[in-house]
Amino acid sequence: MAGQGVVAVALTWVDVSGITRTKTVPVERLEHAAAWGVGMSPVFDVFLLDDSIVSGRYIGGPTGDLRLHPVLERLVPMAALPGWAHAPALRYAQDGTPHPLDARALLRRETDRLSALGWSVRGAFEIEWAVSKDGGDGFTPAGKGPAYGMTRVTELAGYLRDVLGALKETGVTVVQMHPEYAAGQYEVSVAAEDPLGAADTAVVVRETIRAVTIGHGMAASFSPKVEAGAVGNGAHVHLSLWRESAADGPANAMAGGSGPYGMTAAGEAFAAGILRHLPALLAVGAPAVASYLRLVPSHWAGSYACWGLENREAALRFVTGAEGERATAANLEVKCLDGAANPYLLLAALLAAGRDGLGADLRLPEPVNVDPVGLSDAERAARGVEPLPSSLAESVAAFEADAVLRDALGEAVADTVVTVRRGEIDLLGGAAPERIAAATRWRH
């Protein structure tokens, strides 16, 4: 690192409210940090988005200490922050036992549980963000071009070039980037990885975008609702389930089968498990009061608990890929999620839901290949299509009632998730949409 001009290493973790927190060590102290860790209070797990603090049964108060240990195999120099490197951190108690709220360790546990059953998962986050002309409290779109229009690329061509260049230099494989629907909004898609890599990359992508944006004299918002009257930012997750075959190598369970649109029975069961647990999953994947300003019908946010082939209004969109590459490309996109989520905690919960589907050999209902809002109440009832929770309070109630997810995540995590969510409901519940958007805009 020192030979590459790095002078500082940011050790990061993501708290329960979805905010990336950090401690920094000079590069000369990296070896010591790897061996013995860096001190950090456990209380950050009960910080709310405005940095106020609540207390749960397991976390709260000024006492105690944790040790942050950098994950050295994921250590990368940050091209957008010259002289800086980034490493995700694992958190341990001083006696060396894993901290029960360490979401990265929790995600590793879930991948290990699937591995014990003979399965692995590949995943990736789509990152959406909106660019403001300056760094003030308000939001002024940095471009005037139409949704998805080339004009919007041309307006910020130098900036977008620098985003792509910095991501490449940092080791991120970008699949595509495009202007999105809302004014000043863009999206970047990256290559699929193992779940731990996907979550690490999601953090690196956002911090790279943030740094490049600030370097251009602008500001980037990843909030689920940047402006009260505009389309919000999502953070869709793409997942595919894989099994290693001694004869044929890895095989994608989302393709090559006799199930819906070519899914295998296992791929269908994995998807059905996620569908079953979607209301509770929102307490992890759409975790802000502002999330429910975004999660509304006819906005491609996936506000109904249903699935469909290439249906951007369904919470689960099944993507086959082009003819000829389906064996590797077929995947499930979970659309009802946003950037206020902790990516490690979210992926752990998604894997647990999919694993439950595998264990119960669940089957998917009939696909919905229209906008669900256009179906009558009777049609939706007959097809089992339910609206997802319309408030954070509703999703928290669903999470509390979901024994599978609570057991998979552990009681300390489950209690802290509920405590933090209730704290943010007390903070912003019932506030006007404009106030919610303003309070959330620059926090994630």
TrEMBL record:
Top-level taxonomic group: Bacteria
Keyword annotations: Ligase
Gene3D superfamilies in the cross-refs: Glutamine synthetase, N-terminal domain, Glutamine synthetase/guanido kinase, catalytic domain
GO molecular function, one term: glutamine synthetase activity
GO biological process: glutamine biosynthetic process
Pfam families: Gln-synt_C
Name of the protein in question: Glutamine synthetase
Stored PANTHER family: GAMMA-GLUTAMYLPUTRESCINE SYNTHETASE, TYPE-1 GLUTAMINE SYNTHETASE 2
Family the entry assigns: Belongs to the glutamine synthetase family.
TM annotation in the entry: none
Domain GS catalytic residues, every copy: 103-444
